[in-house]
Specification:
alpha+beta; Beta Polymerase, domain 2; eight-stranded mixed beta sheet; three-stranded antiparallel beta sheet; 13 strands; disordered C terminus; binds adenosine-5'-triphosphate; binds magnesium ion; EC 2.7.7.19; RNA-binding; PolyA_RNA-bd; Poly(A) polymerase I; poly(A) RNA polymerase activity
Length: 484
């Protein structure tokens, strides 16, 4: 696909080489690019035509144009227009207005959502450090910044040139015009695609200050596309990473899922750590990785990498993945460490595990929110790691019925693959799941035959008799048994 792009970029090279930035936009006609209407979502095309018909300008923009040019199937289609959100909403009965930070419209076609936003100008900066927020009004619309300079609301509408300038990276400011099937390049994105470069639009420091999530997006695209960060785009990241502390945990949660749960988790994880960003997403995990803590039965880094590989492989082969699984992987080493600490303080294994899980989750939600519908299955997966070895009697049959069995089992395999020795437990469960009832009973019998304290039925210790003090045995002494 990049080869298809070469000719058009060559044509444009003299423009790119020119110091006259005002030569933008470069307009690439249909004959000179590889993006065809046939590759686009028919619903997105419908939205473009309807907006055009109602007298508005409308373009496809962002990831869908970028990914098509690179040769990747885009995951969603974003439309941008000079119609206001309210006007868009009036045109499409199947739409709803959403967002506060960015007001936009979702046009719904069955399960597909086409996101339609209005051209925006960048929010004007105000010198107002004493206030928690500053608000400015332009063209009847509003914007606001926090005391840290982070843009809280950005609903200042503008024209297409202004819209391009406030986008994050040059390759995300390419606009596809369905009227004549041309692509409009406002910031040199095509050349950057050609050179496999991620380049922020404008001054990197200022753009990260306005929205620190752009640092994460830079890393996400580097992991996803295998592109390099251009020097000025990369330079301030380590120093400015701490600004992520001011981003709401719910937004960071969503970003983490996109970063690590989109099929390039390993590369992205490595880059996040390299740029000093991971610690603002997973402070406990980063501290533990830095400390070099390991145990015979857990190697945190190998385990996390193995878990990410599992997610990447599943996505690349078209299988589904659960966000709670990914989070359970990332936090498991921290849970294992806390579990050990609580047990060392004398707490029995099961309450120690619950206490460890509570502590790790409490710490984590200060960085990235974890909705309860995810934290509950995470706990179940962790819990299952202590239940899967206990297979005797009816337990194996009951565990198999557990709604989280499959996730718990997959998690166990990741532990084994990362070097944890579990005495063939994964193979045993593999055989048990697929065996006939007779084979299952045989498998359980084989465990019983070599039962030990960990796996076999609990044995009753012989009763200890109290030293006789001359009295006859009382009822209480007779009932004193321990099955621990
Ligand atoms: P993908 O959807 O493949 O993850 P994308 O680039 O389309 O990538 P979206 O989050 O869908 O990402 O955003 C759509 C477009 O909106 C981007 O391409 C970019 O132009 C703009 N955009 C998104 N987030 C930001 C941001 N934080 N700052 C500036 N522009 C942004
Ligand atoms: Mg997108």
């Amino acid at each position: 696909m990049l080869t298809g792009l070469k000719s058009l970029v060559r044509k444009a090279t003299s423009l790119f080489a020119s110091p006259q930035a005002q030569t933008y936009p470069i307009i690439i006609p249909r004959s000179d690019h590889s993006l065809s209407r046939q590759n686009l979502s028919p619903n997105a095309v419908k939205v473009l035509y309807r907006l055009n018909k109602a007298g508005y300008d409308a373009y496809l923009v962002g990831g869908c144009v970028r990914d098509h040019l690179i040769g990747i199937d885009p995951k969603d289609f974003d439309v941008v227009t000079n119609a206001t959100p309210e006007e868009v909403h009036t045109i499409f009965s199947n739409s709803r207005l959403i967002g506060r930070r960015f007001k936009l419209v979702h046009v719904t076609f069955g399960r597909e959502i086409i996101e339609v936003s209005t051209f925006r100008a960048s929010a004007a900066q105000e010198d107002n450090d004493d206030e928690n927020t500053s608000t400015t009004s332009l063209k009847g619309k509003d914007s606001a910044r926090s005391a840290h300079g982070i843009v809280l609301r950005d609903n200042v509408y503008g024209n297409i040139e202004e819209d391009a300038e406030r986008r994050d990276f040059t390759f995300n400011a390419l606009y596809y015009n369905v009227k004549d099937f041309s692509i409009h390049d406002y910031c040199g994105g095509l050349k950057d695609i050609e050179n496999k470069q991620i380049r922020i639009i404008g001054d990197a420091r200022q753009r990260y200050q306005e929205d620190p999530v752009r640092m994460l997006r830079a890393i996400r695209f580097a992991g996803k596309l295998g592109f390099e960060l251009e020097a000025k785009t990369a330079a301030p990241i380590k120093e400015m990473a701490h600004l992520l502390d001011h981003i709401p945990p719910a937004r960071l949660f969503e970003e983490v899922l996109k970063l690590l749960g989109s099929g390039n988790g390993i590369e992205t994880f490595v880059l996040l750590r390299q740029y000093g960003l991971f610690r603002y997403l997973f402070p406990d995990a980063e501290a533990l990785l830095q400390s070099g803590w390991k145990r015979d039965d857990i190697n945190p880094e190998a385990f996390i990498l193995q878990g990410l590989k599992n997610t990447d492989d599943r996505i690349q082969s078209g299988k589904t993945t659960a966000p709670y699984f990914l989070y359970a992987v990332l936090l498991w080493p921290s849970v294992a460490l806390r579990h050990e600490e609580f047990q060392a303080q004398g707490m029995p294994a099961t309450p120690a595990l619950h206490q460890a899980a509570n502590m790790v989750l409490d710490n984590q939600v200060a960085s990235t929110a974890i909705p309860r519908r995810f934290s509950t299955p995470m706990r179940e997966i962790w819990d299952m790691q202590f239940r899967l070895p206990k297979r005797y009697g009816k337990r194996a049959f009951l565990l198999l019925e557990h709604p989280r069995f499959r996730a718990g089992f997959d998690f166990l395999l990741i532990r084994e693959l990362s070097g944890t020795k579990l005495d063939g437990l994964g193979d045993w469960w593999e055989a048990f799941q697929h065996g006939s009832e007779n084979q299952q009973r045989e498998l359980i019998k084989n465990i019983d035959a070599r039962s030990n304290d960990k796996e076999g039925p609990k044995k009753r210790r012989p009763r200890r008799r109290r030293k006789s003090n001359g009295n006859s045995t009382s009822a209480s002494t007779l009932s004193e048994t321990s099955d621990e």
